[in-house]
Amino acid sequence: MATAEDKKARLKEIEEDIEGLRREFPDRTDDPQDYGDEGAALSQRQELSAQLEVLATERDRLKEELGLD
What is the dihedral sign for C-alpha 15, 57, 5, 13? Predict the structure, then answer.
């Protein structure tokens, strides 16, 4: 069973991971791109969005368990 300190440490790690993923998020551009580049950027955005969602869900659960909100 994780202690409150373990949960707080994990929460800090999650916050850092979320911030890092947000920095990696590719900007959308109106510049013309070929379909391969556009498709790769879309795939990357979708993958990062899914990772962010998983981390946000875990962050919210930990905050609730710790009584932070």
Answer: negative
Length of the chain: 69
Distance between CA 55 and CA 4 in Å, rounded?
18
Q: What is the pLDDT of residues 25-38, one digit of tens each?
A: 777 666 666 777 77
pLDDT tens digits, residue range 53-64?
A: 999 999 999 999
User: Could you tell me if residue 50 is inside a domain?
Assistant: yes
Cα–Cα dist 66/10, whole Å: 12
* Total number of domains in the chain: 1
Q: Based on C-alpha coordinates, what's the Rg of the chain?
A: 16
Q: Whole-model pTM?
A: 0.81
Owning domain of residue 55? 15-24+34-69
Residue 8 covered by a domain: no
| Domain assignment of residue 61, yes or no | yes
